[in-house]
Amino acid sequence: MRALVIGNSDGIGLATTRALLARGHEVTGISRRAAPIAAAGYDHIVQDVTEPRYRDVLNDYLARHADIDLCIYCAGIGARLDLNDLARQTQTFAVNLMAAVITTEVVLGHMIARDHGHFIGLSSIADLMVSPQAPAYTASKAGISRYWEGLGRALAGRKPKLSNVRFGFVDTKMADAPLRPLLMTADAAARFVLGVVDRPRLTATKPFVMTLLARLTTLIIRSPLSFLFVPRN
Ligand SMILES: NC(=O)c1ccc[n+]([C@@H]2O[C@H](COP(=O)([O-])OP(=O)(O)OC[C@H]3O[C@@H](n4cnc5c(N)ncnc54)[C@H](OP(=O)(O)O)[C@@H]3O)[C@@H](O)[C@H]2O)c1
């Protein structure tokens, strides 16, 4: 299997890349820093997904690897709101939403033309929430979740497959909230992603009970408790 993992120098993307390589797959990674991986079957493209040339980088990759089987979009940032610096919120949309949309257009578009493949996007259970602490994070996740789930429904019964993966708290640098209920390791998150590779799902949520917590928090959103649910970096 040939896979492209975007946002894999760290965290869930790195753990997922390692898990794919352990299965013997050919993997290419994309992120601003190189991934700490020196394994046969791995190569890396150093690229910021918010730069204009990102689209060309994806097209170049697809020209070389038209037989791609799997793409996993893991790139993400979460910025705490600073009312004196809304540019960080804009940057959050650029990575979590617009670059994910461009990746979907180019890579899923290629897969649709070939009736083949599986596109997995990493979103978050935070897609349910309204957050005064990190409004761009929750809004970008809401936007990308609804987009991927709508596209996934449009692809129902045919190939390629599209899966939207929604995590709660995963122990990476992004998740440094004061309370991290039901925290998962990055390796456990990667195992879950590999389960989705094996069995595509329109929406795959882990842990599911966090959905109830997020909904409850949204009900009391106008309360300070909401900060407990939002990753930051
Ligand atoms: N950790 C959690 O609790 C949690 C919960 C729910 C959902 N998620 C989602 O899971 C995904 C992965 O998160 P994580 O926890 O693994 O975060 P992470 O450890 O901070 O890793 C984020 C990855 O995204 C890459 N990235 C960030 N900005 C980029 C850019 N402009 N261009 C290219 N690559 C970029 C980073 O690489 P470079 O810095 O080298 O570019 C890094 O490899 C995100 O979408 C996140 O929202 C995480």
UniProtKB/TrEMBL annotation:
InterPro entries with a match to the protein in the record: NAD(P)-bd_dom_sf, Sc_DH/Rdtase_CS, SDR_fam
Name of the protein: SDR family NAD(P)-dependent oxidoreductase
Magnesium as UniProt keyword: no
Signal peptide (residue range): none
The family this protein is said to belong to: Belongs to the short-chain dehydrogenases/reductases (SDR) family.
A GO term, aspect molecular function: oxidoreductase activity
The UniProt record lists the keyword DNA-binding: no
Keywords: Oxidoreductase
One GO CC term on file: membrane
PROSITE patterns: ADH_SHORT
